[in-house]
Amino acid sequence: MPDFRTLSDTVLVAPQIALSDLADAAKLGVKTVVSNRPDGEDPGQPSAEEVAEAARAAGLDFVHAPVIGFPDEAAVEAVGVILAKGDPVLMFCRSGTRSAVTWALAMRQAGADADGLRAAGARAGYDLSRMPL
Known about the structure:
alpha/beta, 39% helix
């Protein structure tokens, strides 16, 4: 069973997903998958193109917004555009932390309360207490 964690009513976050997890995401109502992993980060991880193909086969849209270290403006903006649509989203990276941080930064830019974002991260198992929100 995939390790999907809830950040909000429309956002799930996960550590590295298997291609077979995309069908489960679709069954949960997810419309878009966002990969925050750069290609080649770990041996054996599926490439963004492989995830994109599997996502499309499951009827999902795919966005590759890689994050190396702290999320840059481009990744935060790309995630913000996806989140603004309001459709259910699954975001993932190696552990889920970069995805949770990128989500929180995008939501903060959209006006969300910093303490509420930190609390949502904590409920999902991610410590955002030291993030500059």
